Amino acid sequence: MKLDVIESEHIEFKEVVNDSTIKTIAAFANSDGGQIYIGVSDDGEVLGVKDIDGELLRLTDKMRTNIRPDILMMVSTDVETFGDKKLIVIAVKKGPKRPYYLVPKGLRPEGVYIRSGAASVPSSETAILQMIQESSGDSFEAHLSMRRDLTFEFAASYFQESGFGLTDSEMRTLGMLTAEGYTNLAFLLSDQCPSFVKAASFDDDSRDVFLERDEYSGSILKQLEDAYGFLLSHDKFKTEYEGLRRIDFDDYPKQALREAIANAIAHREYALSGPTLVSVMPSSAEITSLGGLVPGITREDLGANISMPRNKLLAALMYRLGIIEAWGTGIGRMRSSYGDNGASVVISITPNTFTVKLPNRNVLGSAAKPTIGKDAVIQAVESGCHTRADIQLRTGFSQSKTIGLLRELVDSGELKREGESRNTRYALTRM
């Protein structure tokens, strides 16, 4: 028995999942998408797949290991029956992060494949540069969802409680629905959302001993509520007395917890697979999301209340629901919620992650004691911050306060200044 389709620019046959399958997936993602039938010979003869689960597991592992950027969100699989035989049908969508390349070969023509007729062929350097330029403006949330059978039970309830409906008309206004179908924004808000949050509490700051761990899935609105609830459940109180008056101090300002988790959900890179991480240790709480800084934003911009949302549609929706405030004010709100006691909200950024660390105000000992003024600046320099912007971000001080403290420390000889203007760096005078 043969299939009633033939190999073409958008159709490929493979007998099993192998390296050639991975090459074809990358080529489809770099082109206009396509389908791969696993369990079919080159001439279209249906051979079938005996170990469906094994082949699917091998497929996921090979994609995760051999293709960059992460391509899993662009690929869906289905099992179809032809007579008494079963096939795996792999649907690949044109990716938003092109070019996708094979890890062993790298981002060069022999590692970047495109479709040419019914074949997957190496791309040219010119085509690679064009893909990079085109994809830099792509928005994952605006692309059509690979999954169509979406439900919105939680989101509809959340919208209703907020005084809004979730009709088709409303979805179109929000960017969840187009004439072609649901967008990835709808996918994220649906009960079938593929992203998730992992939350854990630890007995020690080195995170060696778990006390509790959980995982939250479903609509990102549900994940947000669940993760915030987890943080609140670990926000303990310390009681002190001034005469007969009892005063309770919570570990973390609730505004800081709320802003940290809301911004992690709103601004993460959903084209990357992997969880948002919530970790509570004795001396601090950390929220880590995928994505790093949005292109065009620098570390210095974070202290200036400037924001370029990675997910503009999602940010606008969350603003409408009253979850987030004006864009760019989240970090300032977290810091101001700690008041003037010197506790510092620490921002850590890598190319693919963004971490907010909130100090526990009630922990005793050197790890949690507030550090103020010049000591905070010196500690920031000791930890590797050498520009004014980095020191300001680490300490949480205003720009004018940071400049003033740096000037005093240079005048006293505790710090030395190197370079001029934007190239100015600060270092300890004692070595």
Outline the structure in words:
- The strands form seven sheets. A six-stranded mixed sheet has the order 12-11-15-16-18-17. A four-stranded mixed sheet has the order 1-2-5-4, with helices on one face. Strands 3-6 form a two-stranded antiparallel sheet.
- With 431 residues, it is an alpha+beta fold.
- Helix 8 (254-267) packs antiparallel against helix 11 (330-336) and helix 12 (373-382) packs across helix 13.
- Strand 13 and strand 14 form a beta hairpin.
- Helix content is 32%, strand content 23%.
- It is built from 14 helices and 20 strands.
- It has helices at residues 19-30, 52-66, 125-135, 153-161, 168-174, 184-189, 220-233, 254-267, 299-302, 312-320, 330-336, 373-382, 388-395, 399-411, and strands at 11-14, 34-38, 67-68, 75-82, 85-92, 101-102, 113-116, 119-122, 177-178, 181-182, 197-202, 210-216, 237-242, 245-250, 276-280, 284-290, 346-350, 353-359, 415-418, 425-428.
Which terms would index this structure?
431 residues; globular; 23% strand; four-stranded mixed sheet; alpha+beta; single chain
Strand order of the largest sheet: 12-11-15-16-18-17
Low-pLDDT stretches: 364-371
Classification by helices and strands = alpha+beta
Largest sheet descriptor: 6 strands, mixed
Measured distance between first and last alpha carbons: 78 Å
- The whole-angstrom Rg is 26 Å
Shape: globular
Extended strand count: 20
Number of helices in the DSSP assignment: 14
Percent of residues in β-strands: 15-25%
Average predicted local confidence, pLDDT:
86
Q: Percent range for helical residues?
A: 25-40%
